[in-house]
Design goal:
By secondary structure, the chain is an alpha+beta fold. The chain contains 6 helices and 4 strands; from the N terminus they run ββαααααββα.
Length: 146
């Protein structure tokens, strides 16, 4: 299942306030791109970006923090937890139970997502995997409720 149409809420571009290290970002994409750097001015510029696409463009130009490759998946998981545990999107994510979540894209991101090729979907789909992990956490959390 891709992140379009009725499942657009799965996208990192979905408008939802995300608090990261004391600052509120208008989308998960804004927060993720800002997290790539320790530069406070660059983070503020990303936070103020007018759209998630602009935030992504700015994030491609920041000086990466030294540990970025080691922490990027942890940061993404932390941000997804905030999005689906602390905002009102958890029930929508739970409604996808039983489905594999694929971040299908046409911009060639084969790390976080997959692209369509003649041989089918190609890529690591790390975003889809992280989303399914958060979904499992929510299932456990909701099952424990009285």
């Amino acid at each position: 299942m891709g992140f379009d149409g009725p499942h657009s809420f799965l996208s990192n571009f979905w408008p939802v306030d995300i608090v990261y290290e004391g600052f509120t970002y208008p989308t998960l994409e804004h927060a993720y791109q800002a997290a790539k750097t320790w530069d406070g001015l660059a983070r503020a510029q990303v936070r103020r970006a007018g759209s998630p696409a602009e935030a992504k463009r700015l994030g491609h130009a920041v000086m990466l923090r030294d540990d970025w490759e080691q922490v990027k998946e942890t940061v993404m998981l932390q941000l997804l937890r905030h999005k689906f545990h602390e905002q009102d999107l958890g029930p929508q994510l739970l409604a996808t139970v039983g489905r594999v979540l694929w971040e299908v894209n046409d911009w060639g991101d084969v790390y976080w997502g997959v692209v369509r090729r003649d041989s089918g979907l190609v890529g690591k789909n790390r975003l889809g995997a992280r989303l399914m992990s958060v979904r499992r956490e929510l299932l456990v959390e909701w099952a424990a409720r009285p």
